[in-house]
Structures are given as structure tokens and as C-alpha cells.
What does this fold into?
Amino acid sequence: MDFIMVVSRVHVRIRLLLASFLFLSVYGQTSGPYFMVTFPAVIESGSDAKFCVSLLKPNETLQMNIYLVHNNQSRTLLQETVEKEIHHCSHFEAPQVEGESVQEIKVEVKGESFKMTEKRKVMFKSYETLVFIQTDKPIYNPGQTVNFRIVSMDSNFIPFEQKYSTVSLQDNHQNRIGQWTNVSSRGLILQLSHELNAEASQGLYQLIADTGNRLITHQFKVEKHVLPKFEVTVKAPEEHSVGEEELQLEICGKYTYGQPVPGQAVVQVCRKSRKRYHEAPMISPCLSETVEMSQTGCAFFMINVSTFMNTEFEHKFEDYLDATITLTEEGTDISMVKSDKIKLSFQIGKVEILDSPKNFERQKVIEGRIKVTAFNGRPIPNKKVYLSEGERWSQKLLLNLTTDSDGLANFSIASPEHPTTEIRLRASVYPEEKYHGHKTPFFLSADTRIQLLQPATSYSPVFSELSIESSEEPFKCGAEVPITVNYYIVGETTESYSIDLIYTVVSKGAIVHHGHEKVEVEDSTDVRKGKISFKLSVVAELAPVVQVVVYSVLPSENVIAANKKFDVEKCFRNKVLLQFSPSKAVPGEKNSLELTAHPGSLCGLSVVDQSVFILESGERLNTDKIFKLLPVTSVSGYTFGVEDDLECLHVRPRRDVEFDRVYNTIKGVGLKMATNLAIRQPNCLMYKGMQYHRDHIYVRYRANLHGVGAPMAFHDYKPKHEHIETVRKFFPETWIWQLHEVGDSGSAQLPVTVPDTITTWETEAFCVSSRGLGLAPPVQLTVFQPFFLELSLPYSIVRGEVFELKATVFNYLSKCIMVKVTPEVSSDYTLEPSSDGKYSSCLCANGRKTFKWTLIPTVLGVLKVTVSAEAEQSQTVCDNEIVSVPERGRIDTVTRSLIVQAEGTEKTKSQSWLLCPQGNSVSEELELTLPEDVIEGSARASVSVLGDILGRALKNLDGLLRMPYGCGEQNIALLAPNIYILQYLENTEQLTTAIRERATGFLKSGYQRQLNYKHINGAYSTFGSGEGNTWLTAFVLRTFGKAQRYIFIDPEIIKSAKQWLIRMQRSDGCFIQKGSLFNNRMKGGVNDDVTITAYITASFLELGNTVQDPIVKKGLLCLKSSIGNLTNTYTTALLAYTFSLAEETETREHLLKKLNSDSIEGDGRLHWSQSASDDSGALSVEISSYVLLAVLTADKITAADLGYANRIVSWLVKQQNPYGGFSSTQDTVVALQALALYSTKVFSSDGSSTVTVKSEDGHSHNFDVNQNNKLLFQERSLQDVPGKYSIEVTGSSCVSVQTALLYNIPTPTEISTLSIATMMEGNCTKSFRQTLTINFSVIYNGALNNTNMIIVDIKLLSGFTADPGELKNQILVERVDSKDDHIIMYIKELQRNIPINYKLHITQVLPVKNLKPAVIKVYDYYQTSDQSETEYNSPCV
It folds into this structure.
């Protein structure tokens, strides 16, 4: 039981002072020899360790032995016979340990009359390897590629090859979206990349590298962003005193290429009120003002701080000011916001005591100076200041003083009389000590203690001291730095003597330098002081910090010591330099990247647009990041486990000495000292039969009735060429990301082409070799066009519309130029000059000029508009100066695209055939017809030929449907066909590396996108919200399961989907239908649970589960019970396929027989529909595809089966759209799965055919199809539209032929089951930048109670833009996307005969004349024949 002893209710505070008695009682003698063995308390396992030995005053021949002792085993580290003083260091190899091992260093010194043994604990510790992950950028847009590198090193920055069991990439929902297994850093750098999908969810992503025993992580952001063109900086003090009335802010704006930003800044400064839940918040006082940016791009803003001070409610406000600066660029209205916080300090000044002595002598005066300064360091003249003595709350006033013009006041007071041995002086602007209330302005006071100068003995207080002078930091690598030690010796013998100043330099916890200087001290009665210096060679191994400790033994046998920490420049043994030549460039110019490193180094280079780092500074690869990896940089103590136990001493109490000062000084650099000198107090005392223990909080001794308490410890150990013309079209964010070797010469030159972005490029480069890691200081390449051109034109216009093409030229030269602007001549459009017709002009420094033409298109399609601006020679005087011509970048050329569309609505008609000549010839006749109301000039037709029915889909893997895909079902439906096509090509040995890479790229992107629709319980839904959807979850499960063969899919994601589906199975084996069907026409004549059970059971069987699997077994039982009463063709077809997969032949035959009786035949083709009235569309394709899958899923397939299948395929092929898909998502997925299976079954590696397409007018096209080009998409335009054509195929292999006819008609007005109506509103008084309102309503009046998902596709008027977010929160809207000049809105469903109203504002950004109407289209996603269209136009036309 610990307690502070109380005797007669008075605390017994026995302060222990170790005295000469301590030497006698512990060490047995009072003068020499003294030994000191210093070593690090913690030593890295297996390292080359060092300890240092000093032996002073050897009065006989001594034997010194030093051992490392562990588990009763002893290892000799040093054996030495000593006859004179020694100071040296020795090395030993630290033992290899796992984790930590505490051992003992034992020092024995013995002679004839002297014998001494000291033991000290030492810890050996294994450190983890250093690993860093570097990404090319801290922030990515969805759809961009994340490039990253991983490097492993030891604690000396020597890299080594590391095998990573996994490297994975997690999204912001902890889904693994990328994984690499068992990858090694061959060549010392592991470099990988991952392409994010365009729909990647936004948030923090994490790269995780697993070395087998630890995980290394690195985070980056995914966020939709536009790179800033300029940066805003704010210069403001971090802290401002409330005593200073004025606070100045400097606001600057700079473009990324270094030029000032013209414009205005709105500066708002507020002091926020504190939020307390039980109080209404106070109104925050704010100042807001607009300032004009000067020509330098900067502006100053003065704040009167008193505006924000409220004495009555001061406690309710935060102690900082919030400054928000919004800088708006002149001419573009582009804004950047910058925020800053300025802390408010209630300290208005401080008082300091200068030049006061450390000691006083009796009958002598004590002199010094007092300085008074304001918070900002300015001296305060004529300020009253008071000098007092005594403890804080019982002071005696000595002097009233007033400061001079320098804020100084001199003082002189008499020294205290006997028996006082210490005087405490306090200087203050307050005549008496006072408590400063919270949030009240105050001056800091000053204190000093001055001790009586007394003769030094081993039991008196030690006033002598050592100090190490400050030096300019950080120490530069390669320099020789003097370290200066001051000594100040008081009260020792007056005779002359010598002392040894012993110094040790520690870096990263290890001794790196040791030495000593002998100082001769002259005889004197006064204070002896002086200084010594030693030189320290700064090498890379000393970085980032060195700690110097110096100690000495005085004649009084007292030890004095001092330590100091110095920062060292963070440098590496492998010196890496990188530079661009030249260091400034114009866009598109050739440049050279010059790299220097240790010979044989492999270097990782990265060059990124500075704008990225303005947007998101992130964690960049720099020296700070590398050095933070070190397990130890500097040491300020060591753990409790290394503290040495101290014995209890039987002593008489003596006078005070300072508390473990020398011990803590040495401990403060992480060293231990085995010595026979008194450098530490014992842990406890025995006094009159009582034990007294040190209390580390009160620095006193406390009684312990039950033995010795454990000492405390400080836990501060850190575990851890001429270029004339520029044509700009290459604008990357990451320009260079590559590995490069420097070779034996140690240098390399990389020829590079400068991108077209006008910005500053920032480098990151590191190199690795056997010498270690090296990091190049970052360099910049400023890419700057002396002047440049910007074009303003809309994304698209409609034929008949005209607009004003604007070309704006900016001059960033410091001189005037004569600029001439010339558009390129084109047959696709005509340009009419604007009113002034002048296309050359003077343009002076920082000037801009806009040139205009009226552009009139003459053709439909994509036009290229090209304009050049040239600085030309001229004798014209501009602004009183002769114009100049830049040497580089004299011409700037810009090309932009413009789409010219036909009026009305585009229609597509395709006709397809699968023609198999079988050694003879087959032919088909076709006629391309156009409706009477076709829009003139809009018709175009083509014929395409492939040797494979899947070739068309293969060509359009990313666009099988010309439909939006912004929901979970559409996304997975676009992903699935990739798998079936890959399986087919793999099974038929046609899969090339190029096709695999392209298809797996789409799979990876689709996988990531699909995770946006995943629920936390493993299910999926159409928009990722609400309840999980059984159909969609089963669809995702079967698709992900098959995709695993080609890309990484997180197994946990598949497992969680499967588990969720299993929970949906009832005891009778049927699955519960959750969420809606994709296509409500699937319903009819059967319980929905049967259909979903068939679909899920088929999914499990496709993924390799057998009929013995309990889930499958129960599912099949459910299905069998419903076979007798099937009237739904869709369900029958799906069941036929399911029982084919289950190899239940009897049930399969029964179902196929029923389906055969329901089939629709014609022209030798075969198909099925849900009902007699519905013989077309998506559902017929899907049903027919399931029948085809059922027919082909059997152990043995006969020629009759293939003949039957061929008839189904012939019908399916005729339904294909021009892109290889069908009319919607589900029919496309199932049809391509069935066609892939059919193609695999009938594949032949022999044969060839020739296709001839002839028009009546004699135009002819020939196509050769053979085994080498059967997947090649061959396409020709057809000139005769309208017209009749014949197709003839001769040869031995089947070919797929398709014609596509596209044309425009006036927007149809006929009413279908869906209809849409619009009404426009707008203020037409403005000639430009009008805002119009589209009010539109959608209604369904079909036979069903509700629709499937509905898409509303709004084409914007030419020259207008809209915010899609405006529609997001409107009724029934699940999602809104924008693509090019269209807004796509997803409506969950419409109820019959209930109109839903919507509103969208559109804003004019470019004026277009003769404005034509735009079309709004509404359609059922899964039954695209249910559609309606309407036109709208500006009410101002």
C-alpha cells in the first residue's frame, strides 16, 4: 500500500540528495578510477552496433571486460588492459531476434585494489521493412486510370525484391474492385495500374499491399472534378493578437503557367459562434468586401479586429476568424474558393528578463535588464514595469521601472543576506500578481531564479553546466559542421585542473560519432567559462536528425551533461537529379528529360499537371514521406522494459540536489551509461527503519510499507528548338509515368514531346539501386504559349441553324503583338465575316481580343472547324511601341468538332440474314424503301458482312444497344454478353490477346460499376436503393460467377449475393419474388415465384452446382409441382432450359414438346411469343433464345437438333440491330448466350465464301470471307437509296449479312400507349443568355396497370445547356444523366391514366440563329415499341 506519510498531520517530504556519502556507501571510494560505458538503450536486431568507453584516473593497471548476457549465457564484447585514460568505441554484431529481447550489458573493471561491476539492460528489436506506395495522382475522375508503384526497403533505405501475397484496390464501400496475387517487385519496383469505370462511386479508395505478415495501405480520392486553371493563395498570420487593431490579408491569384489572374475577389471574414446544443446560436459577425486584383495578380484587404470583439458575449464565440476568398476570373466568371483560419490570441505582449546572472554572491548587487514587447515583437516604450521577488502569490515589490524607446529598463538590486541561498525575481506590467480571466487581454510575465554561489562538493547543489550552441539548421549534406560546447564552472577548486569533455553523436537511435576534448581550467576564484568545438561531417546516414550529448566529470566528482537535437537535410546516398532541357516550353515542342543517379539505378518517373495538386494536395512522394517510414528518427527516452532496477539505500538525508539531471540528459538521446559515477538517484531510501519511494509526479519520496515500487519511464521511443506553330489536342493530367534505367554511366536522356496544356508540370522521381533509394528534388516545366486562341461553338446544331463562331486571342507576352486570325477553308461550311470584318489587330500585354464569323453548315455529320492565330511582322505602332514577334509559339492553331444534325427524328431499319451456301450458292432479294415524309438528305445505308454471327456483337462490345445504361440491370446486361463471346472464342480457339484485353477491360469497368447497385446485405437493386431485387441479384450472381474466369471478382461479393438468395428460398423450395420483374409482360398464367425459382435454379446450375446441392434440389422440386398447369410461354421456355441443365431428360422432353406445339413458323424460321397478339419485341427474342438454349443443352445433340436450332437462329439473326444486340437488355443477354452456344456447336475451322451485293443500277460490292477474316467486320456504303438489291453467297461457310438504313422524318405525332406533351415559358426581353422553362407531362394509357421503367430523352436546343440535377428530386425520378446535348431521365414506372408533370430550366450559352425545334422522346425500356415523341422550341423564336 502506497501512501504519503502524515506525521502530526504534517506531510513528511523527505527530498533525497545523493551526496559524497552515496559514493562511499555504494561505490566504496571517493576518487578514481571512473569508467563510463555508453550504448543505445534499444539496438536494431542484426545491426552493426556500437558502444563507447571512457576510463578516467586509472591509478593502477586495470582489466576491463564487457559482456552481453542473456539467459545465463555470456558473450564477450570487449577485453582490454588499461594503464592510462582511454576514450574509444567498439563495434559488435547485434543478435538476431524476433520482436523484442531485453538482455544485459555487464561491465567489469578490476585491479589489485579496485573491483567494480555494473550491469545495464539493453533491448534488441527487429524493425519492419519500409514500404511505400506511390500513385501518380492524389485524386482521380471516374473513368481514369490509377497508376501506382510499390517499393520495399530496409531501415537503411536499401531496396530489395519483395513478394506480395496480394495487392488489392478497395472502393469507398470496402468492395475489392482490383486484385493482383503473388506479385513480386522484380527490378525492385512493382508497377501496376487499374482503370476506374466511368460510373465509379466517389469517395476515398484504398490500395492494400500484403507482404504476408503486414498490410501497407495508401489512400486516394475518386471525385468528379474539372482541373482548376489558377490557384488562389492567402497570406495571413497564423495567430493575431486582439491588441492589434488592424489585420492585413494578401490575396493572390496565379494561373498554373505563372501569370497573374485578372478579376475580382470577394473576401468574407467571420467569427463563428460556439455551437451548444441547449442554446440558440449567436449571429456570427462578418465583414464582406470586393477587391480588384492588381496587375501583379494580388490584392490587400485590411480588417479591423475590434469589429469581431464582443465583451458581453465573448465566451459564446470561437477564438479564430474564418476567411473565405472567392476569386472570379475576368471574362469567364470562373471562380476558385480559398479558406483560411486565423487564431485570435488574447496575449497582447510579454515581459522578458535579460542578462541576469546565474548566481549571486553576498554583498554584491544583482543587475539585469527587462524588455517589454508587443505580441508582434515590437518594443513598447514608456511602459511601466514592476520587479518583485518571492513566490508567485506572496511577492514583495522591489522596483517600479519605465521602459525606454527600445522597450528596455535596467535594474540593480542588492543580493539577499544569510541564510537565503536563492532569489526568485518576477518582472510584470502588473504591480501585483493577478488572475487573468478567460478571454481577457493580458501580458506574459517573466520569472528567473538566481542561486547563491557556493563551493562545489559531491553533496552540494551543482551550478556548473554545459550547453551546446544552436547552429544553422538543417545541416547540409556534404558539409563539415562545427558543434560548439560551452562550459560554465562554478564553485570548484580555485586551483588549475583539467577536465575531459566527452561527446557522443546519435542518429536514428545509434551512435555515429564519439570523441573527447581535454580542457585546461586556469586557477581562479571567479566563474570559469569557455567553449570547445568539434567538426561533424554530414553524410546521408545522419539524416533526418542528429542528437549530441556531452558530459564531463568535475573535480568535485559531480557529473555535468547537456544534449541538443539538430535537424539534418533529408538526403540519400543515391543522389538523383532530374531536369528538363529547356526548363520552359511551348505546347507540342520537343524537350529532353535529363536524369542522373547512381549507375545501374532503376528510376520511377512521374510528371503530372500542377492543377491536380492545386485541387487536391494529397500525400505526395517526397523526402518527408520517405523519412516518416523510419522506425526511429530521434529518441527522447526509452520504454519501461529497459529501465534498470535500483536498490534501496541506507542513508541519512542531506541537502537538495537536482533530480536525475545527468541521467535524464543521457536518457534524452536514447543512451544508457554503465558507470561507477553518481548520475542517478536511487529508487528508495531506508531511513529510521522506513522505506521512502520516489514519486514521479511530485518529485518527492513517499512511504511504502510493502517493498519497492517499480520506477516509471518515458515512453517517447518512436516505433516507426525553334517551334513556330502549335496545334493543341493532347491534354493529359498525367503526362509521364514510366520506369527508366540510367545504365552504367549513371545518366540518361529521355526525349519527350510537351503536351498541349498551358500549365506547369510537376515531377516526382525516385531511383533504386544497391546503393539505396534516392529521391530527386522536384522540378517544374512551365508550358506557356506567348499568346493563344480559344474557340467558342456549340456541341451540335440542326441543319438550317446558323451561329456566331467566336475566336478569342489572349496575349501573355510583356510586349505588344500584331495578331492575324485565319479560319481554314472548308467545303462543309461557309463563314461570313462579322460586322467590322477586321481579322488582324494590335494586342498588348495581358490583352484579349475576340474575332467573329457567322458559320453556316452545308453538310450533315461531324464538321472540323479549324482557326489559326499568327503573330506577324508589322510596322504598325501599338500603344507607342513597335510590335514584337515571339521566337517560339508564333502560330496557334485550334480545331474543334461540330455535329450538324438533320431535322426531325432519326429512324433505323435493319435487315439480317444467316446464309449458309453449303458448297452451292444462296441468294436473297431486298428493297430499301423510304417513307414519303423522309427529310431530304438524311438517308444513308450500308451493308456489312461477317463470317460469324457473333462478329457484329464482338465489334460493338461496349455498345450493343443504343440505349442509356444508368441502372443496375442495364449495366450487368451490357457486361454479360462479353463473357459469352469470350467463352465462344476461347472454346473455338479464336481468342486473340487484343480481343481478350478489350473484352476484359469492359468486364472490369462493368464489375466496378455494378457495385454501385449493391446493398450491404449482398443483394442488388435497379438503382442501389430500396429493397433488394431477386431477379437482378440472381442475374448478377450468374454473371460474376462466370466473369471470375477472366477478371478478378471479390469472392466475398459472390458469396454475399448467394447467401442473400438462399435466404429467399421457402421451405417448399420456391424462391420469393422481391422487387419487380424487369419486363411486366413476362407475367401471365403462372405464379411469379415459379418463374423466379426457375431463373435462380438455372443460375446455380450454370455456376456448377449439381442437382445434389440442397438449394438446387429443393428448387427443382418446386418447379416440378407446377409443370402440369403451365400457360405462360416465357416460363415454359425458361423451365425447359432449367431442366436441360439439370439433365432431367423426361421433364425436358415434355416441355420441349409443348413448346414445339406453340411455335410460330414461316420462311423456314421458327420463334415463340408470349401471346398471339404480341409477336414481336424483346420478349419473343428472349423466349426463343431460351428454347434454343434448351435444345442445345443436352449430352448428345443430333443433326435433327442442329437443324431445328438453325431455324430458331435464322429468326433470331433477323431481329438483330445494327450493333449486334437486339431491342432491349434481357433479350440481348439471353440471345447472345444462345447464339454463342449455337456457334460453338456448329463451329468449323474450314471453308470460305464470297458475298456479292448488287443494285438494280449495277453498283456492286464483293466480300471475301475465310478462316483468317471471319471475325472481321466488312462494311460498304450503299449508294442507291431507295433501291433494290440482290445478295448472293457462294462457297462452303455460313456468313452473316446485314443492311442498315438510317433516315430522319418529322417528329411523329401519332399516339401510342405512352404520350408526352410540352409547354414552354421564357422571358424574351434578353437577346442572349435567356433562361427558358420546359414544362412536360408523361402519361401511360395502355392495357396494363403500370409500365416498366420509363426513359425520357430530352435533346437540348442548340446553344443551350441545363443542370440535370434539377430533375433528380422530382416525382418518381430514379436517376438523371447528361450525355453530350441530351438529358436522360429514368422514371421507375407510370401508373395507368395518371399524368406526371416535370419542369426543366435551360440556359443559352451560345447564340444560335434560325433555331430549330428539339425532340423529347419517351419510351418503355423493356418494350421499346411503346414510345412517343414531341418537339419543343424557344418561345422567343
Summary: Residues 1-30, 652-657, 695-723 have pLDDT under 50 and may be disordered.
